[in-house]
Amino acid sequence: MNLDRYIARKRISLLLLIGLLLTISWIASILTKFDPLQGLSAFPQAVGWAFQNFYPDAKSLERLPQILPRLWDTILLSTAAAAVGAMVAIVFAVLGSATTRVNGFFSAACRLIATLFRNIDVSVWSMVLLFSFGQSGMTGFLALFFASFGFLTRAFMETIDEVSASSVEALKASGSGYLSVVCRSVIPSTAPQMMSWLLYMVETNIRSATLVGLLTGTGIGFSFDLYYKSLNYNSASLVVILIIIAIVTIELASNAIRKLIK
Asked: Angle 180-186-187 (CA atoms, 0-180°, nearest 5)?
């Protein structure tokens, strides 16, 4: 009987949730003057246009020597931003974690900084930094670095709190100093999880770097923007395909590395 009531409550909760989502969608469509039916009716036409125009041809393949270096630069930029962000994030995570914090003030300050950087989107960072550094690789690097730092600091804090709490208490009880606890317990016990988060951040940065390139005029995003705005859809589609191949390849490599470090 209790099981039947539990299932009935779950069904009612699910129906209420669906009703709430539909209501929010309906109100949003009214406020934005968006017609979902019109959008759905235009979808087949959009797919047909893509098959007719948005595909690589022989002429676009001749541009590979110009596109591939930009793609490689984007991958290197994304990896560097994630790596540097991770190194800075480790320091803030150790100081901000409830397990390894020095005092409450530093912990709260580190958490506040991480929250601030994590909740500002990479596109916003790009626009803000654009005024200071102009359209350059430095703008893209800093935008990706700030986003990586904020996300990884939060992820590393949670990893330290979950993984190393018991070992930290044991070392503290034995009289070990703060640096000894961090170097002998926190870093070794959390290294596999931190590496996993770092690999995830590299994947995310490569996706974000395309948008950053559109805004800053650098990397593979600039190539796509250039071809698309010049109505060269064949070359633009080639850029999209290369980005997808790069992301899938890096994701497969990341999954293989995760299996090795577990």
From this structure: 95
CATH topology of domain 58-261: MetI-like fold (1.10.3720)
What are the pLDDT digits (tens) for 123-176? 888 888 888 777 777 888 888 999 999 899 988 888 888 765 666 666 666 666
Report the C-alpha gap between 76 and 206 in whole angstroms. 9
pLDDT at 164: 59
Extents of the domains making up the chain? 1-38, 58-261
Three-class SS string for the chain? CHHHHHHHHHHHHHHHHHHHHHHHHHHHHHHHCCCHHHHHHHHHHHHHHHHHHCCCCHHHHCCHHHHHHHHHHHHHHHHHHHHHHHHHHHHHHHHHCCCCCCCHHHHHHHHHHHHHHHCCCHHHHHHHHHHHHCCCHHHHHHHHHHHHHHHHHHHHHHHHHHHCHHHHHHHHHCCCCHHHHHHHHHHHHHHHHHHHHHHHHHHHHHHHHHHHHHHHCCHHHHHHHHHHHCCCHHHHHHHHHHHHHHHHHHHHHHHHHHHHHC
pLDDT given at position 149: 92
What is the pTM for the complete model shown? 0.77
Q: Are 68 and 241 in contact (CB under 8 A)?
A: no
